[in-house]
Structures are given as structure tokens and as C-alpha cells.
Amino acid sequence: MLQIALTLVVFILAVIPMGRYMYHIAVKKKTFADPFFDRVDNRIYKVCRINRKGMNWKDYTLSLLMTNAVMVFVGYLVLRLQYILFLNPNHIEGMEPTLSFNTIISFMTNTNLQHYSGESGLSYLSQMLVIIFMMFTSAASGYAACMAFLRGLAGKSKDLGNFYEDMVRITTRILLPWSLIFGLILIWQGCPETFGGNITVNTITGKLQDFAMGPVAALEIIKHLGTNGGGFLGANSSTPFENPTIITNTIELISMMILPGACVLTFGKMCQDRKKEDKTAKEPLFGKQGRTIFAAMSVIFLIGLTICFVSEKAGNPVLDTAGISQDMGSMEGKEVRFGIDQSALFTTTTTSFTTGTVNNMHDTLTPLGGMVPLLHMMLNCVFGGKGVGLMNMLMYAILTVFICGLMVGRTPEYLGKKIEGKEMKLVALVLIIHPLLILGFSALALAVPAGLEGITNPGFHGLSQVLYEYSSSAANNGSGFEGLSDNTYFWNITAGLVMFFGRYIAIVAQLAIAGSLFAKKRTKASIGTMRTDNVVFTILLVFIVYIFAALTFFPALALGPVAEHLTLWY
Amino acid sequence: MKSFLKYLKSAVVLTVLMLVVCGFAYPAALTGLGQLFFPHQANGSLITADGKNTNDPEEAAGSAISGQDFSGDPRYFQGRISGVNYNTYTEEEKEDGTYAGVGSGGSNLAPSNEELKERAEKSVEEFLKQNPDVKKGDIPADLLTASGSGMDPHITPESARIQIPSIAEETGLSEEQLDKIVENNTEGKVLGVFGHDRVNVLKCNLDIAKAIGEI
């Protein structure tokens, strides 16, 4: 318990300076590292002839989509051709077309759902030029979209910013330096980092043992920092080579939490910025608007964490009957060095921050322990992935002011901008597309033999496996109930489509909202304006999120994890 | 059409830039730094049968941070159940395809799955046969459950202690000697708070092998 609390304290301590740094990067204020990075960036702009003109929302969206499309094309080629390219010491074959499709969509959309196993499916070149490359670029794309959104909603600038400039700045100023420093610490703790091939040793019992090697640490750190989540090895961060010690575990946890957390702080500071004219005033820690959002996310996170921890600690009654003491909790699928507490924390974090990395196997979680990650991916706004989680939460915030506005019969407004029909239609689209993808495709998978074949656990848990796969895809999370036999045409294609629509429909609609709000005049707050910077709003927001989730997902959850829990215990 | 080409050109430029910087230069730089400062860890933390660090796979008997399979040899401490048998195999198993190549993973059996119950009952029965002094219901939760990675190098101190009487009988070593071996290979919490006490199975077994003259 204590170690969970202390880890969260470390997170809060780390997110405050990072939020400040990130905000300064987003609005181009001075930072301590400017003398160095300005020189690097200017060289890049010059060599690549990047036009740094401000963009409107359509320009920004098209630039993002086009860049992602080109990256998908290049990555797909590398995956298909990896067997003839260099840096392939373990002689891996080329990847099958539907699996390549799934993989490339998965990494470009920041999902990192893996239907392949890293040890046997990818050459080192693919791990670098596809996986690591996309881990940087998909994270930077999400952040860029979020910054444009915030500039439209809260900022005082004249445009939404420049996409290419945002991509370069986030990569050189945050992602690369952090990855190099903490990547080196991961190596110190035991993560391999080599271009040499796999190793075979002779054991003292006269047998042989294989070890999968490669540039693990380089992938490992950006995998968490960019809330990507796809492991170098099949079993992801539960393996000792990806996550050897409690120190690496903590670094990985903080790395995946820090940037989504910092995005919220950036938002709060931007809102504050607009109000005060006095340039000398002190910069706020959170900003009033950011504080309510951060608090709402934290409340939902802590509720989930508690349920997951208590449920895992209670253990599995079936194993208890079989003669295995459950005093420690449910250890099936978990590692001794992490135990129940660090596993529950990691599981809740990876799905709340939609990273998708795992340090224990989610398929073997207790029913309610496994429901928490499932639910948090369905909510998709509890901090969420880099940038996009905040945008999703702001959708709920707009929905909240809209519903409350209707109750008192006033035109709803958020941050001084009137929320009208056009914005509400787009908000509704974003909020509905997510459950529609999850439930629609789950229904499809349960209706056709090709879908049913993937299920490996009988009974209610089988439904949980299907729901989990599509929730993970739609939320661009990427963790899995790994028992599912998902490397088939059906699962590769459907999950690929869900990831694609889950990412891009939401981003385009959200940028459109930003563009629409950006064009509106700001109204002065009056006595009748609903305040969005106090505790009441936080409570309302939490309730709206839970009510919306209950209305859409409760029947599915009742038939999956809840039913399994009841059969197990009663 | 003209604006399409404009977007395409910028997109290609950015893609090439990111490929070179993030996909190539960054991992190469980190590999260089890692190999320079921490060559032992960067190459898999391999150890020899005497427990010394080595970077040469020819000399190594395992990795200090990875588990190894000792099932079927009651003289050694048994680790946790592995979904991939710790990637440990014999020549024959490789030839007949029982060992399918290097991998990782857990059992992926749901808590409600009948197979899990059957596996647990079977392994409890086998364990009690090998360790007759242990009472059913006293077996710690980690010992007879599958780890997440299939490569878990550790068991809890309780799971090590519970195996000592049986190993003492099989090897002729005294229980005190084995206690000492377990103690020497127990790693504690970081700063007294983070993580859990754990025993490295491979290192214990290398010590046992040395004590009974196997190596």
C-alpha cells in the first residue's frame, strides 16, 4: 500500500515541473534548455525547409493525416520486406499481409496492439525503423493534435500553430532527451541493448537455454514515455529483460504517466494565460480550469485502482480450494518482484493512461480486477493517451456544461465560448463512435465463427476477452487478454479497422470543434454562467463520465466480468 | 492537386527526418552508450556456473536476471510454473519440435477456467508427494502459479523455505547450509519500501551445485 502511495507522490512531484516545461514549449516561452535546442531545431527547419506558418484547423488536420499516411506506407514496406533487409541476425521471415496491416495501423495510431510476438515476428531493423520510429511519431502526433486543440479552445494565439514545428519541438525537446537519459538507467538495471543476435547457453543440468536479445532498452523507454505500450518481447514489461527490477518498474510507470498528466497542466496554464494581462504575475501550478479536470481524472483513477487492488488481493477461491494459499493474493500471471500492489498499480495505470504495456498478464486477472482495465479503456479519458486523453475528457466537460445548461435553461458555455448545435453534434459523434466500435464489433465477433474461434477461455470470460480486444483497439490502448488467438484474418482486419476509426474520427472531429470554437467571440462570464473551475464541476464531471459509461457498457460488463465474479465466489 | 503535392512533400520530408533521427540515430546512440558504460547488463547479464559475470555466451550458465527450468531434478529449488518452460530445452526437444523457439508469456487461463483448477490440483498433489511435511493449504501463492513472463527468476522466501527439508534430504546438505544459501541469494526492497523480498532461484541452485560438487 505504502509503495503505491509513494509512487503516486513521485508522479505528482514530477508532473509539476514537466507541466511547466511542456507549457513553455507549447506556447514558445523561454525554457532553460533553449540555447541548445533552438540551435538544433533551427538547423532542422533549415535543412528540411519546413515552413513554420501558422495553420487553421483544416490545414493542421490534413498535414497530420498526410504525414501519418506516408509513415504507414513506409512502415508497411519495411515489415513485408524485413527478411531481405539488413539487421536481421535471427533470420526472421517477412510479415504476412493482414498481420502487417494490423501492426502498422496499431503503431501509427499509438495503440500498439500486438498480434505478433516480438521474439519471433520482427527483425531488429523492423523494431527500430517501424516500432521505435512510430513510437516517437505517433506520440508526437497525438501531442501535436492536443496542442492545436488547446490553442483553439483556450489559447490566445492567432492560429492553431504549425504541425511540423510541433512535431519537431516535442521530439527534440522532450521525447529524445528523456529517452536517452532514462534508457541508460534501464540498461544499468539490466535491460539488454545490443545489435547482436539471440544467445544460447549451456545450463548446469545439461540443457540449453535461449535468450532473446536486441535493442530492448531503446524501445522500452519510449514505449512508456509515448504511452505506446508495444513490447519488444511477447510478454511485454512482465519479462525480466524489459522490466528487470522495481526501479525500472517505477521509471516505466512514471514515464507513462508524466506526459498525459503534463498535458492537463498545460491546458490549465493556457486558460489562465488568456485571462491575465499582467505579464509579471506568477505562473500558476495547475491553473483553475486544469485543476478541476486533473481532480476529476484522479478521482476516477483512484476508484479504479482501489477496486483492482482489493480484488487481486482477495485471490482466487478456486486455487484456495485446490490447496494453494491465497494470503498473498492472486499470483497467477504475476511476477514475484512486483507482487500484487505493483501489478495492480501498473494495470490501472497502463489502461487509464492508455499505454497498453503490461507487467502482469491481464487475461489471468481476477474478474473484477480485470474489469477495471476494461472499464478505463471504455471511459478512455482517465488521463488517457498522450494528448488525446485530455481531448476526450474535454468532450465530457463540454457535455457536462451542455447538460447542466439545459437543466437551468441557459445557453451552455465553456471557457467563455458558447457551445451550440455544431459543436454538440461533433461532441456526440466523438462520444458515440467509441462505444459503437467496441460493442458493434464485439457483436460481430460473437456472431461469426471466425470471431468465436479466437476465444480460448470458456464461459463469461470468453465475452470479456472479446470486449477487451475491441476496447483496447478503440481506445488505442494496446494491452490484451493475451489468451485470445488473434493472429487470424478476422481479428487482424477487424481490430485494425477499429484502431483506425477510433483514432482518426475522434481526432478530426476534435480539431473541427477546436476550429469552430476558435472562430467564436469570447463572452464575458456573468452571474448566470456555470463555473467550471470549482469542486461542484469536478463532481458533476465524474458523475457524467460514470453515468455515460453505465448507460452504454453496463449490460456488456454484467455479462462478462461481473457474471464471472459471481460464479467464482457464490 | 497542387496543394495535395504540397502536403505530400512536407509529409515525406518529415517522415525521412524522423526515420533517421528516431529510428536509426537514437537506438544506435543508446546502444553505443550502453555498451560503453554497462556492457555486462547490455548483453543480457550473463553469469557463469561459479556465479561470476561474463559477456561470453560460451562460458555462461544462465542469466542473473532471468529464470531457468529445474523441473525433474529434486536436488534443486523449483521456480514458478512457466508458460514457455523458461526457454530451456534439450537437443532432442529442439529436433522433435517440442521446443518451438524462443518466446515468453503466461498461461492465460482465466480464474474461472477448469484447466486452471486441474493444473493446480495436479501440481499440488505432485508437490505434496515431493514435500511430505508440507500441509495442503500452506503452499505459498507464487510457487504453483504461472508467472506472467514465463521467465520469472524469483520465488518468495516462504516458497524457498518450504522446499528446504526435501532438498536437504535429496542432496545430503544440512538445512542450515540451505538456509544460508537462500539468505545469500535473497534480494530485499529498494529503500525498504519499493518491491518485495525475493529469492533468485538460479543463483541458489548454482550454489547448491557447487556445494554438492556438480560443477
TrEMBL record, chain A:
This is Potassium-transporting ATPase potassium-binding subunit. The system is composed of three essential subunits: KdpA, KdpB and KdpC. Belongs to the KdpA family. Keywords: Cell membrane, Ion transport, Membrane, Potassium, Potassium transport, Transmembrane, Transmembrane helix, Transport. It is a multi-pass membrane protein. The keyword Cell inner membrane does not apply. It comes from the Bacteria. Part of the high-affinity ATP-driven potassium transport (or Kdp) system, which catalyzes the hydrolysis of ATP coupled with the electrogenic transport of potassium into the cytoplasm. This subunit binds the extracellular potassium ions and delivers the ions to the membrane domain of KdpB through an intramembrane tunnel. The lineage of its organism: Bacteria, Bacillati, Bacillota, Clostridia, Lachnospirales. GO terms for molecular function: P-type potassium transmembrane transporter activity; potassium ion binding. GO terms for cellular component: plasma membrane.
UniProtKB/TrEMBL annotation, chain B:
It comes from the Bacteria. Keywords: ATP-binding, Cell membrane, Ion transport, Membrane, Nucleotide-binding, Potassium, Potassium transport, Transmembrane, Transmembrane helix, Transport. InterPro entries: KdpC. GO terms for cellular component: plasma membrane. GO terms for molecular function: ATP binding; P-type potassium transmembrane transporter activity. It is a single-pass membrane protein. It is found in: Cell membrane. The system is composed of three essential subunits: KdpA, KdpB and KdpC. HAMAP family: KdpC. This is Potassium-transporting ATPase KdpC subunit. The lineage of its organism: Bacteria, Bacillati, Bacillota, Clostridia, Lachnospirales. The gene is kdpC.
